[in-house]
Amino acid sequence: MSSNIFFHAGTVTCEERTKLLKQTGATIWFTGLSGSGKSTIAMALEQVLIQRGHLAYTLDGDNVRLGLNAGPKILAETRGYSEEVSKRFGLGFAAADREENVRRIGEVAKLFADAGLFALTSFISPYRKDRDAARKAHEQNKTGAIPFIEVYVNTPIATCQTRDPKGLYKQARAAVEAGKGMGFTGVDDPYEPPANPELTFDATSQATEQGVALVLKYLEEKGLLK
Ligand SMILES: Nc1ncnc2c1ncn2[C@@H]1O[C@H](COP(=O)(O)OP(=O)(O)OP(=O)(O)O)[C@@H](O)[C@H]1O
Ligand SMILES: [Mg+2]
Question: What H or E segment, with its residue span, contains residue 200?
């Protein structure tokens, strides 16, 4: 069946959307350790963009896990999906589920950006191949490549662990010490830094406003803000 699927192009062009929204849609992909400051900068940027009259929307880790990428329990109990659908398509935290989590986010961000929005994503997204696959989805967009801006929130683990607002590092360290482990990024699961990020930001010494300014400057330089 899958070989019988053909892309059906619409008649609205990217130029028409750009003219309407006074911006060219793009995905701004924040990646980094837990506690590195991804959500903080993404939400501040979203606010500034909206205040300046630009349409932006943030897809954030935990929020997406309550809907698009919810687990089987949420799907079955609160949405009423069948057991089969909930089990097959609800996401947990095993390696394949994490991969699928990032894949769906990449595809949704691409659709938002294609619609003309700035899609901001804040997920740890620790594996390079998963982020690169999201980049590829943007590059291979049928009606033309969509800008994919990878922002490496390169805050050292020492800072993240000190801030630890969710207490997750503490929990992960305790799990490792107890000989169980938790598969937590940076503690007992790897984080693969981007090889060629468009932008890099370190929330140890740089204020959120500086990070926002950095991204805005990039968007302006690339002509994405009309
Ligand atoms: N530039 C900054 N300067 C000082 N503190 C910051 C800065 N950015 C973020 N923080 C603080 O660091 C902590 C972690 O930030 P945040 O929740 O945005 O991280 P995250 O990368 O989204 O983590 P997670 O992956 O767990 O969701 C928060 O307490 C936040 O207030
Ligand atoms: Mg976050």
Answer: strand 199-201
